[in-house]
Specification:
Length: about 290
């Protein structure tokens, strides 16, 4: 299929410009192509083809629930296109044929969604069908593989745009994992009444880890409780030490003896841009210091 020059758009009832996916992956190897019947508004009856091999930039993004995949093209010749597939609400996209699709994201309950738009052209309403031959997801909507064909009719017209998309990305990177240890020994300061805690964190990718929690102690029927928070830069390879100070909320200081320490370690996954947390509850023996 030969690449056609961009077609100058004419005004429609409402100009529809597709929004690119918020955290799109750059496609390692892929292509998107389509052509249209005479009278099809989106294609103008021409044929378009884009690929990473031809130095066009393709990106893809899947939703967390695997219900929706968005593909965008930034052509080497400055063309731009967006393609959306969505399964019916509550379902994940799988291999199969999705008939009766209407315009994404305004499809009705129980209907699949489809939209091909770009170069200043979009449908106000549409009907269509798409078929997914192969789709492989990773964590958090990562799209490893997508092979699909599609057919779209704008504004109820018989003329259609028909095309296909193929995406091949490397296997999904592993999610960030955090290991948290709270030392079973700590210090109750006789000077200021604070409790000093420590431990280690480990991680599978570089991350800024926030540790926060509460130390609770009961002495003579009095509850002594203090919150603490600290941050540490964690790098893979070896555990990283952390220290934190729990300041008692009341006037009674932390004292020698056992305390319950509840800790949460949280960090942002640098690949998937999601927060990862791990919790720990430990009994810590405080000594005077």
């Amino acid at each position: 299929m030969k690449r056609a020059a961009a077609i100058v758009a004419v005004p429609v009832l409402a100009v529809l410009v597709g929004a690119g996916p918020a955290q799109a992956q750059t496609v390692a190897t892929g292509s998107l192509s389509f052509s249209g019947d005479p009278g099809d508004y989106i294609s103008g009856g021409a044929a378009y083809a884009y690929s990473t091999e031809a130095k066009d930039r393709l990106t893809v993004n899947g939703s967390e629930d695997r219900n929706h995949i968005a593909v965008s093209v930034s052509g080497f010749n400055s063309d731009w296109w967006y393609l959306d597939f969505a399964a019916p609400s509550g379902e994940a996209l799988t291999a199969g044929t999705y008939a009766g699709a209407t315009r994404y994201p305004f499809q009705g309950a129980g209907a699949p969604g489809l939209s091909l738009d770009g170069n200043g052209r979009g449908c106000n309403t549409l009907t269509g069908t798409f078929a997914i031959q192969n789709v492989v997801f990773g964590p958090h909507g990562y799209v490893q593989t997508l092979d699909a064909t599609y057919e779209q009719h704008c504004e109820g017209f018989e003329a259609a745009a028909r095309g296909e998309v193929h995406i091949a990305n490397p296997p999904a990177p592993p999610e960030l994992a955090i290991g948290l240890k709270v030392a079973t020994d700590g210090t109750a300061s006789t000077l200021n009444g604070n409790a000093y805690l420590h431990g280690t964190v480990a991680c599978t990718a570089p991350a800024q880890v926030t540790l926060s929690g509460t130390a609770t102690q009961v002495k003579h029927n009095v509850i002594i409780r203090g919150n603490y928070s600290t941050q540490v830069a964690c790098t893979p390879g070896a555990p990283v030490s952390w220290t934190a100070t729990a300041v008692p909320a009341g006037t009674t200081p932390f004292q020698k003896g056992k305390a319950e320490v509840v800790t949460q370690a949280t960090a942002l996954d640098p690949v998937y841009n999601t927060n990862v947390s791990v919790d720990d509850t430990s009994v810590v023996t405080l000594t005077k210091g």
